[in-house]
Every structure is written in structure tokens, then in C-alpha cells.
């Protein structure tokens, strides 16, 4: 039996210390939970190993409780008494054992941040450019941005060239880093051809979407082509 299974998770969550957070998960339309076993895993930091949290109809453990609604294909995870050590990313996993076909399908993950401060903090981005040779054939430029001093770490980064969103040539840190344990930082670069860079009317803009715990704020920084 071959079919497409989607594991859909709820959006990122913020919680004050001691609060409760519910992470939602459901299977996509056309697929019933009765054919699958559902799991939750967590990842405490970027690139860390996944840790098992809970299994469908398994016994609840500590601050984690599972909530099941088979009729609606929902399998949620309730985190009670949230503490900073619970911050990280949670992944839902669906596993099916049928007709010798045993896929393990993960959801995209839900980021959970237990706030240690009442207010968000963001320092304006710092644009820069640098010259690179040889690594991608010939010479060219990278338009780049390094941002330091924001909290919490709910940010996303995108680039536009002359007002049009681009994805080719973009390299952004896989996750915001927290080197000194207080505020986060993230870096992003856009590979720019020499032809585009030396066009005087070229505009390279990096846009950061930052959730400060209450609302989403947009910040941007631009670099202009150098001309000839």
C-alpha cells in the first residue's frame, strides 16, 4: 500500500515560566490515525540529537501529557509547568506498519520558547559586503547581514533583489545562535554575480521578521550596487 502522508504541526509557541503549552499535530486529509502509531520527540538545541518524549496511548511522563482525538486525527502534546530548559523544537512522528511498508514521517517541527524576559529585544541589522573568489566559479560578491542582540529567537530571514524575493544563492544560519547565553544572533548571505553587483541601480535587501513575544516586527537593511 503506497500513499502520501502529511504530518501537520501547529505554529511556534511562546510561554512564560510556569505556563502551559499545547502543541498540535494532525494527519493530512484522507489518512486515518488508526493505521499509524504517533510519537513526539524534542530537540533541545539546533543540531542536537532527538529525544523521545511520548507515544500514542503511552504513559504520561513528568511535564508532558498526550491528548488524542482520533475522530479528528489530532495527537497533541501538552507541556505543563514550562521552564527554560523546555525551550527547543518538538517534532511529531507518524509510523505505519502495513504490507511490509514501514515509513517514519516527521512533521516540520514546532519551536517552543519559555521566556526569561518580559519584553522582546532587537538591535538593528548590520549590512556588509565582501569579495569572494573561486569557491563558486570566477569572482563575485556576497551581500551579507549579521544581526546581534535579539530575544526570543523567533526570527525568519529573506532576501529581495530590486524588490523581488529571491532564494537562489541565499545562505542563512540554520538556527539563531546564543553564544553568551543572553541574546541571539543570526547571519545571512546572498551570493551576487559580478554583473548584478556592478549595476548601479541594483538594490539588495535583507528582511527579518521578528516575533517579540507580543507582535511580529519587520526589519530590513539594504545595499546598493557599486556601479562601474
From TrEMBL:
InterPro entries, per database record: Ig-like_dom (IPR007110), Ig-like_dom_sf (IPR036179), Ig-like_fold (IPR013783), Ig_C1-set (IPR003597)
PROSITE patterns recorded: IG_LIKE (PS50835)
Pfam families: C1-set
Domain Ig-like: residue ranges: 103-224
Protein known as: Ig-like domain-containing protein
Organism the protein comes from: Takifugu rubripes (Japanese pufferfish)
Amino acid at each position: 500500500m503506497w500513499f502520501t502522508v502529511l504530518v501537520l504541526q501547529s505554529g511556534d509557541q511562546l510561554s512564560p515560566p510556569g505556563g502551559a503549552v499545547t502543541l498540535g499535530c494532525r494527519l493530512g486529509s484522507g489518512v486515518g490515525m488508526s493505521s499509524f502509531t504517533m510519537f513526539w520527540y524534542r530537540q533541545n538545541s539546533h543540531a542536537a540529537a532527538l529525544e523521545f518524549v511520548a507515544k500514542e496511548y503511552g504513559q504520561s511522563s513528568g511535564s508532558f501529557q498526550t491528548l488524542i482525538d482520533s475522530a479528528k486525527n489530532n495527537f497533541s502534546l501538552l507541556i505543563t509547568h514550562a521552564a527554560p530548559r523546555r525551550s527547543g523544537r518538538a517534532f511529531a512522528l507518524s509510523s505505519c506498519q502495513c504490507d511490509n511498508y514501514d515509513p517514519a514521517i516527521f512533521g516540520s517541527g514546532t519551536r517552543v520558547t519559555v521566556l526569561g524576559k518580559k519584553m522582546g529585544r532587537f538591535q538593528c541589522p548590520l549590512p556588509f559586503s565582501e569579495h569572494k573568489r573561486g569557491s563558486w566559479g570566477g569572482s563575485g560578491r556576497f551581500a551579507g547581514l549579521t544581526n546581534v542582540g535579539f530575544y526570543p529567537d523567533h526570527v525568519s530571514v529573506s532576501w529581495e533583489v530590486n524588490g523581488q524575493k529571491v532564494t537562489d544563492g541565499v545562505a542563512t544560519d540554520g538556527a539563531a545562535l546564543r553564544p553568551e547565553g543572553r541574546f541571539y544572533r543570526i547571519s545571512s548571505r546572498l551570493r551576487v554575480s559580478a554583473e548584478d553587483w556592478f549595476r548601479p541601480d541594483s538594490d539588495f535587501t535583507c528582511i527579518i521578521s521578528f516575533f517579540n513575544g507580543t507582535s511580529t516586527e519587520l526589519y530590513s537593511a539594504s545595499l546598493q550596487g557599486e556601479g562601474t
